[in-house]
Amino acid sequence: MTTPLSSARHVLQPLLFCTSPRIVHHTRVIPARTAGASCLRKACFSMSAFTREESKHGRVPSFGNVPPLYKGHYFGPEAEPDVTEAEPEPSTEESTTTQSKPAKVAAGANRLIKSFLFGTEESRKEQEVLERSYSTQLMRGKYVHEIAFHQVKPECSPKYVNLISEIYPQIAADPLNKVHLVGSWRCVVGDLDTFVTIWEYNGYAGFHETYYRIHSDHKFIDYLGKVRPLLRSRHTNLMQEFSFWGGTAAPRDLGGIFELRTYDLQPGRLLEWETSWQKGIECRRQVMEPVGAWFTQLGSLNTVHHLWQFADLEHRKLSREKCWELPGWADTVHDTVKLINKMDSKILVALPFSPLKVSSFLSHICGCFLLIL
Questions:
Q1: CA separation, residue 116 to residues 20, 127, 317 (Å)
Q2: How many whole angstroms separate alpha carbon 211 and alpha carbon 360?
Q3: What is the rounded CA–CA span in Å between residue 149 and residue 204?
Q4: Contact assessment for residue 210 and residue 177, using Cβ atoms and an 8 Å cutoff
Q5: Where do runs of H (alpha helix) occur along 76-177?
Q6: In terms of Cα–Cα distance, which of 284, 261, 280, 260 is closest to 356?
Q7: What angle do CA 124, 130, 133 make, to 5 degrees?
Q8: 3-state secondary structure (DSSP) of residue 188
């Protein structure tokens, strides 16, 4: 004889012990193959064939092995895909009238376990609101930025600069590449013999398409063969702009030095950081020149980068001191310092080909600062 307790145990056991034969009754029906899946399979097949061919020539896998897809290819044509539907679950009213008492107990236990594992309906809605707030409040526009750190062998720095001075402007000038060069710098205080470059892509699709094109270009392949022996390490992050910053600075020639400040935040505290800096940026704009602010999406997660421009180190010192005299800045520091695990500062000097570059520093920055004094 089946009792309510045994029915509930029958429902609870597969969820608590997760044994394979039992869990299969709780899995969803897998959709039938779509046209989009067919495109992905073809792309993967061509990628694997390309990889085998490239390995014969001593090349390692790269984005050149992965042909870019477009939105229509991910999910197939506009028409609804041919999906095998699972049998609909009975409504609450139907289940109330047709289910036996043991079945009702089992269903209640199932809802209890689902609520425990996946959260209540209210909590799921709150999570959706939070996720939407991250995408609408934090991110600005359609651009994706890449920050690349190259640590160069000290004796190889001149040769490295000559190589990137030739290839980087060519990549940025090619109209088929969906990318702009924001700037390229050498670190002079901090991690010495480190070079920093920031690129701006037209979304993730632009990033992938550009990487695919340049890795299929023999000039870029020759450059990689020459530059790799000069390096000690390489690291990249993909980032998005903070909406409060107002956008990354356009190419300009204001002169001076740059400071790249990097903050390693506690996981889950990024929205608080953005809220506090919405107020703090107004203070900073009065005494120093902001260039860009980004948070990482791929690479070193929970990382924020701020880039500033100054006439020289003395100008940086005076600007930061003046900022403490402005109302609101102390509150920003108080609210954000508790969110930080680790922070780092690098002083950078722009390379000659950099759109954000150094020349005679002078009027623009110093003039704005003297108005406040």
A1: 21, 15, 53
A2: 35
A3: 20
A4: yes
A5: 92-98, 101-118, 121-133, 157-173
A6: 260
A7: 145
A8: strand
Angle at 308 between CA 303 and CA 241, to 5 degrees: 45
Please compute, for residue 236, the number of CA atoms within 13 A of its CA located in the half-sphere on the CB side: 9
H or E element, residue 4: helix 4-17
- pLDDT of 242: 87
Give the model's pLDDT for residue 366: 41
CA geometry: angle 103, 109, 113, nearest 5 deg: 145
Question: Number of C-alpha atoms within 13 angstroms, CB side, residue 269?
Answer: 17
In single-letter form, the type of residue at position 250 comes to: A
Q: pLDDT digit string (tens) for 140-182?
A: 567 999 999 999 999 999 999 999 999 999 999 999 999 999 9
Q: Cα separation of 99 and 110, whole Å?
A: 14
Neighbour-count burial of 185, counting CB atoms closer than 10 A to its CB (0-12 exposed, 13-18 middle, 19+ buried) = buried
Here the tokens at position 306 are 């701020």
8-state DSSP, 229: G
The structure tokens listed for 101 are: 């008492």
Residue of 231, 229, 195, 226 whose CA lies nearest to 351: 195
Q: Are strands 257-265 and 179-189 parallel, antiparallel or unpaired?
A: unpaired
pLDDT attached to residue 290:
83
Residues 6+ apart with CB under 8 A from 214: 171, 177, 220
Q: Tally Cβ neighbours within 10 Å of residue 142.
A: 12
Q: What is the largest CA-CA distance in the chain?
A: 92
For residue 256, which of 351, 157, 350, 138 has the smallest C-alpha distance?
Answer: 350
